[in-house]
Structure formats: structure tokens, C-alpha cells
Amino acid sequence: MARDLGLKVEELPGRRLRLGSEESSRHFSVRLDSGTLVVSQRLDRERLCGAAASCVLSVQVLTENPLQLFRLEVEILDVNDNSPSFPTAQRTLRIAESATVAARFPLESAQDPDVGTNAVSSYRLSPNSHFSLDVKQQPDSKLFPELVLERALDREEQPELQLVLTAVDGGSPARSGTAQITVLVLDVNDNAPTCDRTTYKVRVPENTPVGAVLLRINASDPDEGPNGETQYSFGVHTSDSVRRLFSLDPHSGEVRVSGALDFEESPFYEIYVRAHDGGVPEMEGNCVLQVQVEDANDNPPEVLLTSLLNPVPEDTPPETVVGLFNVRDRDSGANGDVSLQISPDVPFAIRSLQNHFSLVTQESLDRESTSQYRVVLIGRDGGSPALTTTLTLLLNISDVNDNPPRFLQPSYDAFLEENNPPGSLLCTVSASDPDDGDNSRLVYSIVSGQVQGSPISSFVHINPDNGNLYAQSTFDFEQLQVLPVSVAVRDSGSPPLHANVTVYIFVLDQNDHPPTILHPASDSDVSAPQRVPLSVPPGSLVTKVTAVDADAGYNAWLSYRLLPQSTDPSLFHMSLHTGEVRTARAFQDTDMAVQQLVVQVMDNGNPPLSTTATITVTLEEAAPEESYKPRDFLAGAKEKPDLTLYLIIALAAVSTVALATVTVLAARCLRRRGRAAVSPYCCCWLSESPSRDFFKHSSPKLQLSSDGTLKYMEVTLRPTDTQSQCYSTCFSQGSEGSDFTFLRPSASAERGPRRGGHRCPAGHPARMPRAGQARRSLGLPRVFSFCLFLHSSSAQIRYSIPEELTRGAFVGNIAKDLGTDVAKLAAANLQVLSDSDSQYFSVNVNTGVIMVSERIDREQLCGQNPRCFLHLKLAIENPVEFYRIEVEILDINDNPPEFPSEEVSLRIYELASLGARFPIQPAQDPDVGTNTLQTYHLSANDNFNLNVKARTDGGKFPELVLERALDREFRAFHHLVLTAEDGGSPPQSSKIRITIQVLDANDNHPVFDRPSYGARLVENSPLGTLVVKLNATDVDEGPNGDIRYSLSSHNSAALRQIFAIDEQTGEIRVQGNLDFEEATVYEIEVEAKDMGSPTMEEHCSVVVEVTDVNDNAPEVILTSFSSSLSEDALPGTVVAVIHVRDRDSGEQGKVLCHVSPDLPFQLRKDYEHQYSLLTSTRLDREHVAYYNVTISASDLGNPPLSRHTILPITLTDVNDNAPQFEQASYEVLVAENNPVGSVLVTVSAADPDSEQNSRLSYSILRAGGTDPGLDPTRYLSIHPTNGQVTAKFPFDYEQTTYLQFHVEVSDGGSPALRNRTLVHVFIVDQNDNAPQVHFPRAGEDSAAQFRISPSIAPPALITKVVAIDADSGRNAWLSYHLVEATDLGLFSVALRSGEVRITRALQDTDASAHELLVVIRDAGEPPLSTAVTLVVLVEEKGPEALQGSEGRAADGGGLPTITLYLIVSLVLISTVSLVGLAVLGVRCLRRGSAPANQGCCVESVNTLQPPPSHIFGHLHYEPKQGDTVMGVQVTATAPPAPRYRSCFSPVSDISEFMFVKPSADPPPLYSEQAQPNTDWRFSQTQRPGTSGSQNGEEAGAWPNNQFDTEMLQAMILASANEAADGNSTLGGGNGTMGLSARYGPQFTLQHVPDYRQNVYIPGSNATLTNAAGKRDAKNAAPAAGNKKKSGKKEKK
N or C: which end of the chain has fewer CB within 10 A? Predict the structure, then answer.
């Protein structure tokens, strides 16, 4: 190579000779010692150049000093080193056995990488009997082998052929390659399935279950795949009825039972089976299956309902016929004998007469107990096993009005507020009636009566439909409190039944009356003046206002108040509840002599009503004062101790005697009751085991009188047992011994006989007889009145008539045929039974003639049965006889044969074999016998004949038989006419048109219109360019004529990537890049295939010539290139060596290169295709550090093509720039007390150099400051890389205010370059020092003392506080503040100077020592402060302080006596005991003298109604201290007689019953009081007034009367014992006076005003004084002390 290039061998190492490109170095290498070019690795021409005819490798040689580039070409010559090889060594061809002779099948060509004579030159095929080999040669000398079919294929004879194809090249020696070809013969559907038997026979019982397999049909087909897959189906001759009874598995051929086989319907079935394959077109075979059905007992009996009476009246008498039935069984013999049974749990029975049965009643019916019966009738035949049928009847029982209505409650209570608007709903009464329909429709009404002289209807009105009771007028409680209303209800039955109930309407009081003032009474507005002496002490009684209110309860509780309109309201005091007017203070001379007192009396209603009165009080000097002196009742005359002892003994003795007497009387009464227990009517019966559930509910009502006492109580007890009675009882406070004073039985109780004018208990009510008990006719048809127990007879007659007779046509004469007189038939009530075919016939009773009453169609009635019968059943009475008439319906030829459709289409394959049969659906003729179908006729044609098959049952089925082969291309459709004719006279016929479509077979291959095609394309043709459109035709139709185009397998993979063909249209288009330089001519092999089965194909070739264009741009190849260049490089330095080339030739292959003139680079052309890139000027990296040099190469084509190559060149840095600071100097403000390490300032410098040359380092230099010897590095540090200056210690402004230093920066170049800057640091002051007090000086825990004279004059200077602050500026501005002082108004401190001065003159009341707290605060943010304490002492002591005096209340009064309380208690207990004993004695004596059979039936006085004798009870009302309930014990005498204890609240008019429970183990009736229930408590809303929230007289509400009741007085007097010696109040402890039993557990005496002031002692105006009043008097000052202090204590 050195010699050929003219280079000297000895200069090669110095010039650094080397191969220029990587490709050259990979294949070759240079020996520098000899200058020889040698191969560095094995060269394979096929791998390097492929199939190219010439293989040349380009080698570049590069030398330096100077830089030169040489280009060499090395040609690689081919040797025969490769054998031909096929793409696949094993190939399979699938060829249909119907392929025509001479058909061609292309094979894959062998591939040989060698070229020229070393490539493939010939092919050989192994010997065989069916194929030969044909080889085609293309213009490029390529060979393509094809198989040619020489002999027809038969898959059934030889399904597979094995061939060997050999390819031989032309080398020396020759090489060869082989491919194994397997020809698979594809099956064609040319064989029909064949059954192993033409006729199958099977016997099956008629009870064969559904799903049972009869047999399995087997058909075989020698074809394979879908052509040999046999499927089974029913033939067209198989009827629809057979298809419903049998099923055929399409895959296995199993015939199964799918319906019920009935021997009675058909004993024989013939099934036509069609076996067809899955080929296209399909071929079929046929066979017949004959099924013989064996008889079995499979028909259950039938129970037919002839007539039924539903519903049945509940008063129907026994043995009444309510239904008729008929039974039958389609079986015969013992299987047809049927018996009928009925379910045993119904009141009905079955009566039998042959096959007729009747349903009769067996006992009386009651709709209320059972309204519907489920009657089950069971019919059983005599077969083995026996079959049964069940008929279920739902018999409804119709209602009869036999039950009166009943109210849901024995009585009703309604509560209505007075002054109600008319029309207000009072309550709703409700009754029920167990009857149904109109018998249960209720109507409500009010029983007429008189109340207070007016009819009851003027007070109330009732809605007759829903029982709503309304008020007709407005009620007034003061006129009417209780209104009993009797309500009646009746049903709408016939006759109607009714019942009554009592509704008690309780009128509730409303606050509609204002109070009426009784005293002082005056006709004018101002009453007579009350004279009062001026000298009366406070608390003296002036007068008492007495008022009453017509309302009751809370509405009548009155309160009294003085209105502000009075002359001097503070002079008098009025008791809130008593109305007493007393003096509030002592009269003075300044008081007016005449005082007008305006008094308001207000009730407790909601809203409250009030009345005012004016009282004139005259103050006089001469009025006697004695009568107005307050006297303490409890501190009155002191009795001797002996009298008190005697009273206590007397009280104990009287109580003991009373208790003993009560015990004796109670025991005696109980013994008498025990003796009277033998009477069933005695109400004093005590049950040994009382029933807890006898009464479950009670409705107690309490009514209080206007004074708050119990007026009466009502208790309603309801039994849980419906046979027991309900009781409503009223208790009165004033009854005998608190016993029953009002009793009434519930309105729903049974009324018993009266004895002695009294109601006595009756026994259980007798059952009301039902209306209409007499048996009556049910209105049944006459047939129901047959006497089923008489003898009967039957007969049977048969007639024959043709079908389609007109209406009224004669059938027969029943009278004549029976030999009976017509008159006897009419008298015997001849009837046609409904369970026969009576709709088709009618019987003239007068003549006995049977006539046709409706059109009869034999085919509709009997179908294809040979014989058709209708049955008629007749019955007569007296005696009962049944006749069974059979009418045979004869057939006439009234129906022509009919095909299922007028036209049928058949599709037959054109290759169908001769003799093939094609079934046609037969015609149907509903007639029978000779009138049915007899023969078929086929129109004349050339291809088909008619064959008629006869079935065993006489049916005929037509078939078409192919006599001549079909050709679809010759004739595609055949039109035939098939005629069916019956044997009637005259015969009738019908026709069907048969259209036969000949199905196409794939027997024609596609044909191209030209054997080859040519086209010319330019190499720059875009994608999708149409090359050529092929056209092939196929005379077949459908898929057989549908052609698909594809590229043959002979085409290479590269060609397939360039061209694509549309399989539908045959268009060949460009899909890849056409390059003239790669190939100038393309030959495309195309095949056309149809879509038939099997497919047939045809081939053609397309030659495409490519025209060259300038489509290759120049290429720029870098031979040598250095991407980095030093910025100090000299001009002319070589940067890169470039090689350019263009694949085009001629002018299009010449290339010109240039570079942009704006760059400091230039190109120098070394050779024809070689350039060098040089520097043109000096470079500066800091100015431009990076260049993208674009080299443009363009050819000389038209239009020219160019290519741009970018060479990135980076300039490397040289350290030629010193670093520069951003500022010449820096100034920093730093607040003192800065944290250690905080950043003070950041200095920053920049260096335009890069990398190491620009890497900067910072340091601090020593510099001068406030102290020239100060070293800044002791206090400051700097980060060497980022320039952050930080403080090592906190700065203190008070020590240092300014600092400066130098910072130096140096880069990392070699040599290094430096620079420096100056930094000024200014310290800023912070408020970090609190003020310091310099004067006065004092210790931490001591204060500075100053003394002043008490006569010092303001504004004298006492001292001056002096303080300083180490800070500066605003932080040192100080202010002085006086924060605390003994007297802030006495001293002041100057804000800025701190001078302490006195602001006023000292007084005697001022303290002798004053402590001042002065705070000194600076103006910093936040401010700091310091405090100093100053003590100012007054030198001289002032006068002693005034000492306050506090009046002490003198104790007065002595302890109250209890003598009076004992006297009153003794009298009260004695009186009550005597009265109670007297009442008990009288009642027991009266009951004891009553007859034993009357029991408690003694009439007692009552306010509403006479008491009944069903209940006896006692009310115990003896409240104790703390009691909250009142016990009531009630005993019912009617058995069972449980006893009940009930608890009532004393305010039951509001709360009603709070607790009711039966007494599990009750004590004797007169033994002891019933204990209250601890669970009964008042709610807060039920307690009258407040509950402890107020004090004294202002707490709670209390009944207001002029004077309280004696009972209340006694209770108050007795409570005096609780007051002890006066240290406890009336409301303390348990001292409740029993009031909690009336007003709730929290309503104690502390809520009650002091009623001892209302207790007047005869002959004296002294009153009881409460303990609170004594305490107030004790605490009061002797001479009108301070009322304010006294009031505070009183409140406390």
C-alpha cells in the first residue's frame, strides 16, 4: 500500500499513518514496518454485500505532518461456499380432493447466498403418481418451482402424499438442498350419512317417565371433519304431536320421551328421523322409528262439580243438599270404579247414587265460630296401585243477624272544660258486632231523657256513623258538674239488635268568675273608714278583707295585695293569703290623717282575674290602743303542768278505747261475713285465692271541692274475663266511714232480676237464641231436592247423525225409544244434566224430541279419531232415573287436503348424486276414511320424479327423486307443482308450488384477464401509490366466486415490505421506499383464490421498473475531529478532517462544502472529496466559550440536495482574569446581643474564568478600627467558599459601636490572581438594660421611709425618685408611675421628673402610714421597668377612729305552750272516734240484719244512682305526716272476687290515678290503713304552687277563704308540737302537718303562710304568732333600729 500511494516506509511511523475510519480498522490493518495492508479478520462476501453482484469495501488511510487522507477500494470475490437451502425444510400443502387436473401449486424457492454460477440452477422432484414439477424463470434469472396435478385425488383412497424437492446450484463441485413436501388431501362432502337400519321398532309402556331413552339411532359418514359429523333431527313427515311427545338428541341420536304417553290417545307412533352431516352443502340420510305404546292404569279419576250452593246460610238445617258431583275415570274395569270420600273435620257428608254424589249438611252451622270451611273431596279408583283425585271446595257461611252489638267499654268518661264552644268533641264510643254485612253495620243514638228540666239532646249530639259525641251547647261548671248520657247502638239487621252504654261527662272548671269582696261591704266605691289610734305599735291589725270566688280549685285560691295607688303603701302591710291589713311601722306626725288603701284581690286562675276595693283608714288620737296591741298566742297564759299531764293521759285513754272498739267491731263484721258466704249473692265474700288478672285496668277520677278537700272519687274496674262484669264506683269524702256512697254497674253488664227494689247479680247470661232458628228452604235448584235414598234406574241409548247439521235438526225421540208416555216425562220433570254435552242438544219436554241446538264439527270435537261420540245425560224425578245417550257424529267430505304452506323452497347441491331423495311436507286432511288424502301428482320436469311412501297408519308422504344431474351454471332454479287429492265424492284437492334452488359447488377456478402485468414507477413514489389493478373472475357464486388476492410465497420478504396488495380489489400499491440504487426492477408473483371449500387458485406476475431520481443527499463523514480547543490556539490550527460522498452519479454525485463566514473557522479542500477545518482568527473563551460549526454539503443535481453537519467545538479555559468584588466596600448594621454564628454580611466576587480558574477562596485581613490594635479575626470569621461573615461573640453596643476589616479573594488558577474589599460594621443599640434607681436607695426587701407632718400643705414635695438607663436613645427615656398607694388620691408622681408630692391636706381619717409603689419604665420596645417602694409616715398620731355600734335585739317572749294544742287534739280525736264508731256500728248492724240471700243489696243514699250489689269497698283517708298518697281498697263480690288496693292523690282532679295494683295478700277490710306506694310521686307540673323556691308568705298557693276549715285549724294547732321551743320554723324537719299528702312531698309548712294569725281566740283579738315573727322581733332594735340591716338578716 505504501508503494502504491508513493509513501516512504521509513516515514510512516513519524507521520503516524493509520486507517481513517472505524469500518476500515475492523476489516483491515497496516504494518508500519513494511507498509502492507493486510486482512485483520475473516471476510464473508455474503455477509458484507449480500446478493449484490459486486462487493467493494472502501478503506481510508490518514497521515499527519502534513495531514493527508487516502482512499482505497478492495473488491471481495465470491466462492461457492454455500449450499442452496429452503426457507422451511418441512412444508405441508393442503389440496382438496376435488381439485381439477393440471391445477398448479407454487412452492417456495430455495435460497443460495452465492451469486453468479454459484447460485441455484435447477430443481428435481421425487417420483410419484399424482404430481409433476414445472420451473419458471424470472427476468433476473431466479427460478420458481410449481407442482402440477396430473391425476385426480381421492381422500378416502389416499389422504396423504410425501414428496421430496431438491435444489442444485451451478458451482464446482455442485451443492444441493432438499425440502420435504407433505400433501394433505382435504375432504369434500361427497358422501351422505347412512343409518345402520332403515326401520327401528320399540315397545314402551304409557307410564314411561319423561326423559327415558327409547333407543339410539346410529348413522355413519366416511367423510371427515364437519363433512363426517352427523347430526339427527326429525324428518318433515314427523307430525307436531309426535315432536311434543318425543325428543331427539342432535348429536348422539338418542330418542327420549319428552311428553306424556297416553295409550287412550294413541297406541302407535311413527317417527321419521333425518341424519345429515355438517358439510357444505350438507348431505342427509333417513330412517323410520316405530313406537308401540302399551296400556297402563295411568288415568286418575275425575271429580266434576255439577252444582254448588255457595255461600251457605248459617241457619241451614242438617241434611240439606248444598252440592252435586259426578265422577268418571277414563280407564275401564276395576280401574274405572270410583269412590268419593270427604274430609272428616267438616260438618258435611257425602251421599252416593251410582256415579253421582251429593254434599249435604251434617249439623248446624255458626258463621261467627267458623265463617269458611275447606271441604276436601277425594276420588279413588279401583286400580292397582289406586289413583286418587282431590277436589277442594271453599264453602263460605253467609251471616244471619243473631248477635247484638257490644260496646268496647262498660262506660265512658269524658272531660270537658266549661265555656266550651258548641260542637266540641267530647269522646268517641265504639261498639262491635261479630255479624257480617248489614248485620254488623252499627248506628249510634242518644237515649232521650231530661237533665235540669231540659232534654238531653239539647246538651249533646252523637254522630250515628262513628260514635263521636259532640257538645250541643256551652257548659257551665257552676250549674252542672257531671252529665250522664245514655248512648244506644243498634245494628242494621232484620230484626235489628241493640245495646246501651252510659257516658259520664265531667265538666272541668275554668277561671271565669272574678273574686267577690264580702268585707268591707259598701254600696259606694269607698268603704266606711277604719279608725286607728296613732299610738298603736307596728303589726297591729287594722282590718281584714274577706273575698270569695265562685270558681273552684286553683281558680278559687285568692291572694291579697296593696296597690301602689294607696296613699302611703309603706305604712301598712297586707297578708298575702288572709287579707289582714296591719300597720307596718309606728305612725309619725308627718303621716297623713286619712289613708286611702287600694286593695287588689286576685285569684290563681290562668289567666288570673282580680277585683279591687278601697279602704279608708283614719288616724285618731283618742282611739283605744289596747285592742291593737300585738299579743303572742303561744306566749299567752301559762297553764299549770298538771293540766298538761291530764290532757296527755286523757288523749291516750280516748285513743286506746277508740282503737279497741274499732278492732272488736271489725272482727264481728268479719265473722258475719264468713257466715254469709254461703249465699251466692253475698258481696262480703273473701276469696281464698284471689285472681290477680280479674281486673287489669282501672280508671280512677278524683274531684276536689272549692276549698281543696276531696269531694268524691270514682273508680272503674274492668275485668279481663269477658264473662265477668265491669264496675264503676264513686267514693265520697262524707260517706259513712269513708265507705262507698255511689256505685253503679257497667252499662254492658247483664241485667238480673230485682229483689226488694235492688239489683242483684245474675248468673252467666243465657245464650241469645239466634234469629230464624226455624229451618227454612235454601232456595236450591229442584235437582237438590232429590231424595237420594230412593231406588233409581238407568238406561243408555245411541244415535248416529252426520256432522254440520243445522240448528233444530232431529236427533231422536227419547219418549218413543224409552217406551214412555210423553206426559209422564213432563210430569217427572225431565232435565238435562250440566255435566254432559248439553250445549249441542236440547230436549223438548212436551214431545220428547232431541234436537241439535248448536253446530257440530266432528273434526273439532274428535280430531282424527275414526269414531266420534257425544254424551247426553238426562234425569227424571219420582222415581229418580238417569239416562245416558250416546250420539255418534259421522264424517262428511267437508275439508279438502291442505298443505302447511302454499309454497315450499328446496335448496339442492349441484353435485348431488343421482337417486337422492328430498322429502316434501305432506298435505293434511281432517276428514277420515275414504274422505281423507289418497294420492299425489307432480308436474312434468327433466330432473325429478315423485315417489309416495305409505305409513302403517295410512298416511302418505311424497318425496322428490333426482333423476338427472344438476348444473347451477346451466339452470339455477326449478319450479314444480305438487297436487294432493282425497277420495271423497266429489274429490277435493289442493296444490303447492315447489321452488328448487340449485346450490353452487366450487367447481371453477379464478381466471386473470392477462397472464402478466407491467408497470413503471419513479423511485420517489409516495406511499400508497397505485402500481397496477389486477382483475380475475370466477363463474361460481357466493363464496365460491368471491376472489381474494395475495402475494405469492415466491416473493421475497424485502419485496413484501415494499409492495402490498388489496385482497378485495386486487390493487397493488407502494407501501415501502423505492430506491433505484438498491433495485431497478421488481417482479411480483400474485395468486387469486376463491373462498370455496376447497379453495381454487390462479397465478400471474407483475413486472415493475424503477426510474432513478436525485433522491440521495450528500454525506459528510468525519475522518478526524477534536471537540475541545484551547482558547490560546493560533490561527490555522486544524480542527477536523472531513470526507464527503454522494450515492448518486454524474453531476448529482458532485459535492460542494462551505462553512458560515461569521465563525472564526474556514474550510480547506485537500482532495476531491476531502476537506480540513481550520481556525481563522484568535479565540477568547470568556467572550464565546462554545461554537456550533455547521458544515453544509450540497450536490449539483436538479434540484440540488444538501446536508448540514454540526460540529460542536468547546474552548478550554486559560487563567487570564482576576476575581472582582461586586462592591468596593460593604456597610453592615448589626443589632447588639446578636446570636453567636449569625451571618453579618455576605461578600461576593466573580471570576469570568471557568472551573479551577474561577474557584474562589475568601479570607479576612487585619484592618484598623476604633482600636488600632484590634484583630477582627478574634471576633469574626468568614466562610472560604460562599463569603458569609459570621460573629464569633455577641456585640455589646455599650462597649463597641463600630468595626471595619478587609476581605481578600483569590482564584484557583496557576498562578493565582487576587483582589480585596473593605467592610464597615455599625452596632445598633437594643433595649436590654432596665432602669436603675439611684435615689432613694433601698434593699430588695425593704422600702425607703419618709416622714411628713400632718399639717403639710399641698403640693409639697415629699421626695424625688431618680433613675438612669444604660441604653441610649428612646430606650433611655424614662417615665415614673404611681401604681399602688394606701390612698391613691393623696399623692402624685411627676411623669418625667419622678417628684413625689402630696395632692391634698391630710385628714384625721387618713392613715398614719402610707405605702407608695412607684414604677420607672423606659420607652423601649418592649419597655423595661423597675419598681421602688416608698413608705410615708405621718409624724403625729390622729384621733382614735370612731367605733361603730351595732344594736342588739333583745330577746323577748317566752316559749309557746302546747296546752291549747293538746286540748284541740283531744277534742278532735274524740269527736272523730265517736263518729267513726257510730257509723261502723250502724253499718254492721244493718248488714247483719239483712237477709242472707240479699248480701249487700241494701239501697243507700247517693247523689247519682242507687248502688248495685256487685262491689263493696272502703276508703281510708287518714293522712300521716309525710304521706303523699291515699289508699283505697275495693273488693268485688261477684265470683271470682279479688280485692284491690288503690292509691289516690289528694289532687286527683289533676293527676287522677297514679298507681293501681291488685292486693296479693290483702289484710282484713277494717284492720289497718293501706300503705301508700312509695313509687307514687308528683311531677313538678302536678305540684300546686312553687316547691321551695320562695320563702314565707310568698311561697306556693293556698286556698283562700275568709276562715279556714276546722280540720285545717286542727292540723295547724297539732303542728305546734313540731315548733318545740320556737327554735325551728313551721316548715323544718318533718313538720308537714300532713300537707304533703295533699300538695305533694315537697310542699311543706315553709310554703304555707302562718295561719296561726288567723286563729282567733274567743273574747280576744290575739292570734297565733309564727316563730319567724318572734325571731324578727328578737333581732329588731328596741327603738326603731336600722330596718335595712334587719331586712338583710331576714332575707338571709
Answer: C
Q: What is the pLDDT of residues 642-668, one digit of tens each?
A: 566 777 787 788 778 877 877 777 777
Q: For 47-84, what is each residue's pLDDT tens digit?
A: 888 777 788 888 888 887 776 778 888 988 989 889 99
Task: Please answer whether residues 1461 and 1617 qualify as being in contact, where contact means their C-beta atoms are separated by less than 8 angstroms.
Answer: yes
Ordered DSSP codes for 564-594: TTSS-GGGEEE-TTT-EEEESS---TTS-SE
Position 581: which residue type?
A: V
- At 1139, is the secondary structure helix, strand, or coil? strand
Angle at 593 between CA 589 and CA 597, to 5 degrees: 120
DSSP assignment of 242-266 equals: HHHHEEE-TTT-EEEE-S---TTT-
Backbone angles phi, psi at 1102, to 5 degrees: -125, 125
- Name the one residue in this structure whose C-alpha cell is 270558681: 551
Whether the CB-CB separation of 1169 and 1212 falls below 8 Å is answered with no
Asked if residue 167 lies in contact with residue 83, where contact means CB atoms within 8 angstroms, the answer is no
**166 beta partners:** 124, 178
pLDDT grade, residue 1033 (50/70/90)? very high
Q: Is 767:723 a contact under the CB 8 Å cutoff?
A: no
Is the Cβ–Cβ distance between 306 and 215 less than 8 Å? Answer: no
What is the spatial distance between Cα 1597 and Cα 1581, in angstroms, rounded to a whole number? Answer: 14
640-643's contacts with Cβ under 8 Å and 24+ in sequence apart are 643/1459
- pLDDT above 50 (res 1454): no
Inter-residue contact 1350 to 1438 (CB < 8 Å): yes
pLDDT value at 1009 more than 80: yes
* Average pLDDT rounded to a whole number, residues 1486-1496: 46
The vertex-971 CA angle with 967 and 974, nearest 5°, equals 110
- 1392-1418 pLDDT per residue, tens: 899 999 999 888 888 889 999 999 999
The CB density around residue 693, as the number of other CB atoms within 10 Å, is: 11
Q: How far apart are CA 889 and CA 535, in angstroms?
A: 142
- The pLDDT of residue 945 is 93
Mean pLDDT of all residues in 1152-1167: 89
Q: What is the mean pLDDT of the chain?
A: 76
**CA distance linking residue 731 with residue 715, whole number of Å:** 8
pLDDT in tens, 763-774: 333 333 333 333
| Coil, strand or helix at 703 | strand
Residues 6+ apart with CB under 8 A from 1384: 1378
* 1552: amino acid identity, one letter: E
Give the Cα separation of 681 and 684 in Å (integer).
9
How far is Cα 1413 from Cα 1387, in angstroms, rounded to an integer? 11
- What is the spatial distance between Cα 412 and Cα 1198, in angstroms, rounded to a whole number? 124
- Transcribe 730-755 into DSSP letters: EEETTSGGGBEEEEEE-TTSPPPPEE
CB 492 within 8 A of CB 438: yes
| Contact (CB, 8 A) for 1111 and 1019 | yes
C-alpha span between 1145 and 160 (Å, rounded): 57
- Residues 1409 and 1348: their CA atoms lie apart, in Å, by 10
Q: Which of the two residues, 1491 and 1461, has the higher pLDDT score?
A: 1461
Supply the Cα-derived Rg of the chain in whole angstroms: 70
Contacts of 1683 (CB under 8 A, 6+ apart): none
What's this model's pTM, rounded to 2 decimal places? 0.39
**H or E element, residue 1527:** strand 1526-1532
Neighbours of 596 (CB within 10 A): 15
Burial of 1595 (0-12, 13-18, 19+ CB in 10 A): buried
C-alpha to C-alpha distances, 1084 to 391, 587, 1038, 1050, nearest whole angstrom: 88, 148, 28, 8
pLDDT at 939 over 50: yes
Cell triple for 1158? 461569521
Q: Quote the cell numbers at residue 132.
A: 409433476
